[in-house]
Design a protein that fits this description.
The protein has 230 residues and is of the alpha/beta class. The chain is built from eight helices and nine strands. The chain is globular, with a radius of gyration of 18 Å.
Length: 230
């Protein structure tokens, strides 16, 4: 497994794939379009799809453009064979277990014959997971997402590469940590009270005292077809 080191999400995409300029990209579980804006600035044409956002028409960004559509991962509001690249960045494990197979089938449906599927998933390990597991333990859903990739994605692609990187997460103090976690409640199922629980603060302080960084380890699964089979 190739280690890309410390990376921002969009930078890890480029480090894994090369230039995205001119590509039609679908970002499944895009949120408010943070990655979409960055990739558009690099020349991509990005459609973000998320069930919890307000739609937005095409907007120019740098040398590319992006838009946001409201829709579920297992029912993408897009045409067949329309994307060069489909992304799931920290989003596949949010798909309900009984919809994972359909979500990956939808990704294959919208991909062009030479398209690529890129999935970046946080690993249930490390200091960041140790603290957040108190109020939001995703061990089971992350394992289900990995299993779904092996069962419903890998058999449909000739090439499957695994890479890794660390998502840098600096926190000046517990209040900064709590603020970020509380802001993420919209896409998760925990409460503000749960984030502020004494055990969460205790674990946070324990990690700080240890000197370990809160960098989140991430695994990339990149599916494609070799040039000879395109």
């Amino acid at each position: 497994m190739s280690d890309l080191g410390l990376q921002k999400h969009a930078d890890a995409i480029v480090a894994s794939l090369g230039s995205v300029s001119g590509l039609d990209v679908v970002d499944v579980g895009s949120g408010e379009g943070g990655n979409a804006r960055v990739l558009a600035a690099l020349g991509a044409h990005v459609t973000g799809v998320d069930p919890f956002i307000d739609p937005m028409d095409w907007k120019d960004e740098g040398s590319g453009r992006y838009r946001l559509l409201k829709g579920p991962a297992d029912g993408l509001p897009l045409e067949d064979d329309s994307a060069d690249l489909v992304l799931f960045v920290f989003s596949l494990h949010h798909v309900p277990n009984d919809k994972l197979s359909n979500a990956l089938a939808e990704a294959r449906r919208v991909l062009k014959p030479a398209g690529r599927l890129y999935v970046a998933e946080p690993l249930a390990e490390g200091p960041n997971h140790y603290v957040s597991a108190v109020f939001h333990d995703e061990t089971v859903v992350r394992a289900a997402a990995r299993s779904a990739l092996d069962t419903f994605a890998a058999p449909h692609f000739a090439d499957h590469r695994r890479l890794s990187y660390y998502d840098r997460r600096p926190y000046d103090n517990f209040d900064a940590y709590a603020k970020r976690m509380i802001a993420n409640r919209r896409f998760n199922g925990y409460s503000e009270e749960a984030v502020l629980a004494p055990e969460v603060r205790r674990r946070f302080d324990e990690v700080v005292a240890s000197g370990l960084p809160f960098d989140q380890p991430v695994r990339i699964d990149l599916f494609s077809k070799p040039e000879s089979q395109r």
